[in-house]
Prior knowledge:
It contains 20 helices and two strands. The radius of gyration is 22 Å and the shape is globular. The protein has a two-stranded antiparallel ribbon with strand order 1-2. Helices cover 74% and strands 3% of the residues. The chain is mainly alpha-helical and 493 residues long.
Amino acid sequence: MAVNLISLLIVIPLLGALVVLFIPRRLDLAVKCVALATVVVNFAVSVFLFATFRADTAEMQFVERAAWIPQLGISWYVGVDGLSLLLVVLTTFLMIIAIGGSWNAITDRVKEYNILFLILESGVIGVFVSLDLFLFYVFWEFTLIPMAFLIGVWGHGRRVYAAIKFILFTMLGSTLMLVALLALVFIHRGATGTLSFALTDILKTPVPVGIQPVLFAAFALAFAIKVPMFPFHTWLPDAHVEAPTAGSVILAGVLLKMGTYGFVRFNMPLFPQAARDYAPLLIALAIIGIIYGAIVSAVQRDIKSLVAFSSVSHLGFVMLGLFAFNAQGISGGILQMINHGLSTGALFLLVGMLYERRHTRLIEDFGGIAKVMPIYAAFFLIVMFSSVGLPGLNGFVGEFLILVGAFQANVWYAVLAATGVVLSAIYLLWMYQRAMNGPITNDANKNLPDLSRREIALMVALVVFIVWIGVYPRTFLDPMQASVTNLLAVVAK
């Protein structure tokens, strides 16, 4: 069974989507149940993958390789290591949260909605497990389609504008990445006489130092847009604010990580000299993003917009850790990808729950919510503290490791980035104080129902991991250590 685990993770959502396709449109409950069962089964498979993963090696595990287009050296080549394992598990887990969180929120075209989510899960997992450059690019582009439809059809207000902007920005970067990808393949063929898109093969052929900066920049642009790094972030607030709640959860929790993962999987090992040369620039942009994202978040009137801009700040921390080029920074960066997926995903889910009850997201329309929705307010407080980086919760571990790594690289990196921690506490606590505390100033807030059992179950699942990582992060840090050490050795060459 273990031999085909990776393919199983990709195929199960597609099979689920196929089953949903043949369910009569009027049977919405059956559609939801099949979709939920599908993502639960896929999560179980990913847990088995995690449980049987060997943490003592940097080698790719659960590898599957079969000829696909042999004339061009293209193959179905997938596997995981410590750099991708946690992202696969995060994806399967957040899909449960997304499908469960949409249970009552989506009443129109329920069948198509769930099919798109299942297809999206398959595509995202494909991105994280692909070891063939052509296969990676196919999955990378494939994820655009379902996400754009989810925003454009089930979103709010300017949803079509947001969907088109999302597609155009991502395609701009990925087009240049395709050119760089082909250049790598031909460089490898020129050196070996063999045409191959396999990452493991291409890594054995060093890219000439003179070409590295150009190819690094082409890949980096695609990934920086996806992260999104400052100043390529302008598509993100529109996509987040206009997307349906579950779409925002997956966009923040998983799709943004495709960008940061791309830097770790491709930019660093393929172009080590260029990575070292570009590091100061990328760190500078990351620090600007940390501070800029926090300041802009503080002035937002819409809670969802505030959470959206906070992602620019939090992903800046991830990029800072990755390009500190030490074990603490990279380990913290990878862990912070997971932490951001959990904490920001949970915040978007909570904002969506409030929107379902009040049909507004403006902070000024709330006040005193904790008095009528105490369970909701308690979960919001926990998740907010995890996002701030309170010790004992997941955000603290990731940010602490990143700041330690940044300090080792350059003291000023850590000093400037630490201001982002302070600013995040300011805008999140201020938002919580205005929305949750104080007197109930709006009559519409006096009879709001607290969380249902379904909503509580979703939040408990998220909080379990938020606390688990905060209290015992070793469970999640150990599997990545061998791969991080190997990556640093490659970059140091």
